[in-house]
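Hi L.,

You mentioned the student needs an example of a multi-chain input paired with its predicted structure. This one should do, with 380 residues in total across all chains.
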Amino acid sequence: MPLGIENILVTGGAGFIGSYIVDLLIDEDYNVIIFDNLEPQVHGSKQPLPKYLNTTAQFRKNDMRVKEDLVETISEVDVIFHQAAAVGVGQSMYQVSKYIHSNTLGTANLLDVLVNKDHNVKKLVVASSMSIYGEGRYICEDCGSVSPDLRSIEQMKKKEWELRCPKCDKTAAPAPTDEDKPLNPTSIYAMSKRHQEEMCLLIGKTYGIPTIALRYFNVYGPRQALSNPYTGVVAIFSSRILNGNQPILYEDGNMKRDFIHVKDIARANLLALKSNNADYRTYNIGTGTYITIKDLAKRILGIYNSELSPIISDEFRIGDVRHCYADISLAKKYLGFTPKIKLTEGLKGLLQWVSGLDKEQIVDKFDTAEAELEKKGLKV
Ligand SMILES: NC(=O)c1ccc[n+]([C@@H]2O[C@H](COP(=O)([O-])OP(=O)(O)OC[C@H]3O[C@@H](n4cnc5c(N)ncnc54)[C@H](O)[C@@H]3O)[C@@H](O)[C@H]2O)c1
Ligand SMILES: [Zn+2]
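Structure written out for the whole complex:
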C-alpha cells in the first residue's frame, strides 16, 4: 500500500469495470467508497444493488451531476478512480444533453470540488476511451503513417469499406494506434470522454494533483450488462445467441478491434495507483492485438456450442470506425502493464458467468436499439 493511501473512491463502482477495480482494492485492504447512481439502463428500472457488488465497500447512491453529493465523499478519500459515465456511442447521438451532463458536467463537478474544497486527494485516475481516436492509425505504402478521417457516407454506400490514404487516396493498411494519433471523436459519447480525460489532466497538472488517464479499448467480461443494447459487442452477441438469434455484423464483418478482459483493465488501474513516474499522461489500455468482428462472432458461437452463424448485413452505421487496436508500449514502459488474459480463455469465463444468470438479465434488445438508430437516420 503506497504511503498515506487508505481511503479510495470509485465513481461508477457499481458498474462493470468499476466493480472489478473495487474488488482488487478490497483484496489489497484499502477502504473503498463506491459512488454510483445505479443508472436504470445499466442496472434495471428497479435499481437493485448488483449481486456482484463487494459488500466490504461502502456504497453511496449518488449522482455525479449533483455537485453537493461529491463534496463530503471527496473530503474523505486519498485517491479517486473516476469510472462513472453514461456509456453508449449510438445513443449519445440522440441523447446529447444526458451524455454531456453525466460525463462532461459530472467530471467538471468532481474537479470543481478538488479545486475549491479541502481534501487529501493524492491521485486521480480517470477512465478514458479509445473512441476518442475516431479511426485508428494507418500506413500508406507511399506516404507512411497517416491518420485518415472517417469514411464518407458516399464511400460506405459503395461498400468500399477500407480506408484510403488522406494524401494520395490509395487504400491504407491498419496499424497499431498510439497515443499521439490525432484525436477525432465521432460521437457525443466520445467527445464527452475526451472532455473527461483532458479536463482531469489539465486540472491535475495545474494544481499538482497527480492524474493519469487510461484509454480503455474494447472491454469484455462477466458483469457487463447483457440487456443493455448500447454496450459492448461481446455482450450484444452473447445476448443474441442465448436468445436464439444470429449475431449481426455491420459492413463485411472485417473490422479490427482490440478486446481486453475487464480484469486486465482493473489491474491497469491498480498499476496507475502504484506507479511513481507515470503521472500527467494518458495510456492506451488494450492487448496490442486485434481480431475481426466476424472472427469474434465465430469464436463466441464456438464457445457457446451454437449452430447459428453470423449474418453479414452489408449495412453500416454512420460514425463507425473501420479499424482500431492499441499500441500499448507506453503503458508497458511507464505502468509495467502487460495484458494477462487471452481472448478465448476470457470468453470461456464469460460463458460460465452467463449460464448462471436469470433470464431477464439476458433480454436481447438489439432490435429495439437498431430501430432507434434507423429512425434517427444513423444506420444505412
Ligand atoms: N466497457 C468498455 O468497453 C469501455 C471502453 C472504454 C471506456 N470505458 C469507460 O469505462 C468506464 C466504466 O464503463 P463500464 O463499461 O463499466 O460501464 P457501466 O455502465 O457498467 O458502469 C458505469 C457506472 O457508472 C454509473 N453512472 C452512470 N452515470 C452516473 C452518474 N451520473 N452518477 C453516478 N454514477 C453514474 C452507472 O450506474 C454504472 O454503474 C466509463 O467511464 C466508460 O466510459 C468503457
Ligand atoms: Zn498515401
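You could point out the following to them. The chain has a mean pLDDT of 93. Residues 96-116 form the longest helix (21 residues).

Best wishes,
N.
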